[in-house]
Amino acid sequence: xxxxxxxxxxxxxxxxxxxxxxxxxxxxxxxxxxxxxxxxxxxxxxxxxxxxxxxxxxxxxxxxxxxxxxxxxxxxxxxxxxxxxxxxxxxxxxxxxxxxxxxxxxxxxxxxxxxxxxxxxxxxxxxxxxxxxxxxxxxxxxxxxxxxxxxxxxxxxxxxxxxxxxxxxxxxxxxxxxxxxxxxxxxxxxxxxxxxxxxxxxxxxxxxxxxxxxxxxxxxxxxxxxxxxxxxxxxxxxxxxxxxxxxxxxxxxxxxxxxxxxxxxxxxxxxxxxxx
Length: 276
Description:
The longest helix has 34 residues, at 55-88. Helix 12 packs antiparallel against helix 13. This protein has helices spanning 11-40, 44-52, 55-88, 94-106, 109-120, 127-132, 141-152, 154-167, 170-177, 182-211, 214-220, 230-239, 243-275. It is mostly helical.
């Protein structure tokens, strides 16, 4: 049996590369995690809990959850519909749609926030019309939802689309031939085939929605207790030298990241098992 080049490398090289990899992970992942929780608990559990149940902190937590609860389902609907359309049909503008899905990856979140200000702000393109009808988007919750939805909408589509293309549509065609309706085909054939890729995309989308800072920072107006999400609340507390409060709220985002990693690995395992 032929030995691979990776296995035939001298032990010193393998150990050196392993130590470098673990050292990098420890320095840039493990140490920051430890620092976050150490700073959050620096003055004890009482101070930590007080920072979490502070009215402004609770408002930021509620707004973050509300934003994710709105933006993630919207991205699921868009991602599945766009993936199904791209995977099964050839139409004029198809390449443009694929490019548009990747747009938030290419545009800075801050720039996207500024674009929404130019569109919906008081001096923007449709801002005067919105003001005349007493509709507030910028510096209000709708603006935060719109900005978050924009920066997160590639995640579901980019996970589901390759899976749909690789699976093909022969099973759907067979179901239609046997008399199934369009909705029956979707719920009983298409959705079960893509469920793990869809779950994977939802996990990534939700994590990004809860941790988004750049675009939300531009459109929120930083109204304390009203339009501050958790990342924005952390920034305000840190700038006020309230380190315990800042790291306490940051620890919630850190725990969210850890839960996301576990869920991501489980989804990857299930998806690989389905492929095998």
